[in-house]
Amino acid sequence: MVIGYRKFGEGTEKVLVLHGWHMDHTVFEPMFPALDGQKFSFAFVDYRGYGLSKEIKGEHTIREIGLDSIRLAGHLGWERFHLIGHSMGGMAIQWIMAKINERVKCAVAITPVPACGVPFQGEELELFENAAKVIRNREVILMGSTGNRHSEAWARTMTRRSVETTTPDAFTDYFRAWSRTNFVSEVEGLKTPIKVIVGENDLHLTPAVMKQTFLKWYPNAELEVLGNSGHYPMLEVPINLATVCERFMWSHK
């Protein structure tokens, strides 16, 4: 079984792209006009229960995401490649790095969940835990993660896409996966070049968090803060994000 994916570009530099929790690979579509398909070949993955893989059953774990992505790289005949991961996908690319480090040229982690997970308590835990069933919770999470700066119409549109591209079971399971999984001991000291990107208006996955995690664990990590963006730079500043990602990957081709 090969996981669902969308191919973009025909370049020599291969890139696996992993999306976050809220929606499938289409979250990256605003970046497409700015991607260089002559230099890069991108494979945008959809996890089990999401998008092109919506009908594929699974356990909905970080390990499963990683294994499915590695199998996809094999299916495509990619021996060495780059990784891009957003949020939950930013956690999954670290798992992949830990398992097949020699095949990863470099990685770009976009507003990523650290390998230690993100603990939740009280009302915040309830907000996230019930977001599969209480659709309004998804709007609140989207607005909060982007600094409460954008219109409610935007949040409603993104929430509708979230509901359309995910299954409730997968949405619930993946929240528990990225918030509770911890594999720090497997990644500490990995020398893979990794670019960590955060938005200046992301209220939770901040530069301070990245300095206490990624920049401590990975000796070749570097941090960049994107202006005018929160947790979704691929939606908020897509041209800038595409440029930053490709510049870093090209320097490690």
Write a brief caption for the model.
The protein has 253 residues and is of the alpha/beta class.
Largest beta-sheet details: 7 strands, mixed
Strands in their spatial order, largest beta sheet? 1-3-2-4-5-6-7
Mean pLDDT: 98
Radius of gyration: 17 Å
Query: How does the overall form come out from the CA principal axes?
Result: globular
SSE sequence, one letter per element? EEEHEHEHHHHHEHHEHH
* CATH second-level architecture: 3-Layer(aba) Sandwich
- Return the structural class: alpha/beta
Quote the distance from N terminus to C terminus: 29 Å
Would you identify the regions where 5 or more consecutive residues have pLDDT less than 50? none
Strand content: 15-25%
What do we call the CATH topology? Answer: Rossmann fold
Q: What is the CATH H-level superfamily? A: Alpha/Beta hydrolase fold, catalytic domain
The CATH class: Alpha Beta
β-strand number: 7
Q: How many helical elements?
A: 11
Walk me through this protein's architecture.
This protein has 253 residues and is an alpha/beta fold. It has one domain: Rossmann fold, CATH 3.40.50. It is built from 11 helices and 7 strands. The protein has helices spanning 62-76, 88-99, 122-129, 135-145, 152-165, 168-180, 184-187, 207-212, 214-217, 233-236, 238-250; strands at residues 5-8, 13-18, 40-45, 81-86, 104-110, 194-199, 221-226. The protein has a 7-stranded mixed sheet with strand order 1-3-2-4-5-6-7, sandwiched between helices. It starts with a strand and ends with a helix.
